[in-house]
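User: Can you model how 2'-deoxycytidine-5'-monophosphate sits in this protein?
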Amino acid sequence: MGTGAFTVAIDGPAAAGKGSIARALAAHFGFAHLDTGLLYRAVGARGGDPLVAARGLTEADLERGDLRSMAAGQAASRVAAIPEVRAALTEFQRNFARREGGAVLDGRDIGTVICPDAEVKLFVTASREVRAHRRWLEVGGTEAEVLAAVVERDSRDAERAVAPLKAAADAVVLDTSEMTVEQAVAQAIRVVEGRLIS
Ligand code: DC
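Assistant: Here's the modeled complex, given as structure tokens:
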């Protein structure tokens, strides 16, 4: 595609397939990709005062090896409920979204708060059981425990006062419960193509 900004905003609950879809879209269209959950995971993992961590976040913080664990996900979900932490991370995300050449951001509030004018908004979801099963395949342990953690994190993310997880009114909803990754990616590519040519 030519130069200019083009933002794809992808939101949805934990383990719905946002990350796989975001990475595949970025590779297909040559867009940059930002996994915004990593920002909150890095803030949680730094420990100490979360606001100090959010304001001082560096590239190196995002490269820590322990950010994908269940514990890091829970810590991220807790610090993500603090309005000042979210505010400290907003400008970085908006600048990333409007970079030349296109960007895909995935998270919880991209289409609603960070990029309400995104050219494409996708809300990627799947049943709790399917999401817990997928996460369990990645992290191991017992499936019931993983399900409980996923449910706990979803309700905290959806019920918080500031920037709760919800689909933007103009988002295209993609329920991946019965889809393979390839099918979900193919659908997402079609949605983006539809906006690129219109
Ligand atoms: O996408 P993830 O599982 O890596 O996100 C970890 C936590 O970070 C998630 O439970 C809620 C929070 N988060 C958020 O509040 N807003 C975002 N844009 C991305 C993540």
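A couple of observations from the model: The longest strand covers residues 120-125. DSSP finds ten helices and five strands in the chain.
User: Helpful, thanks.
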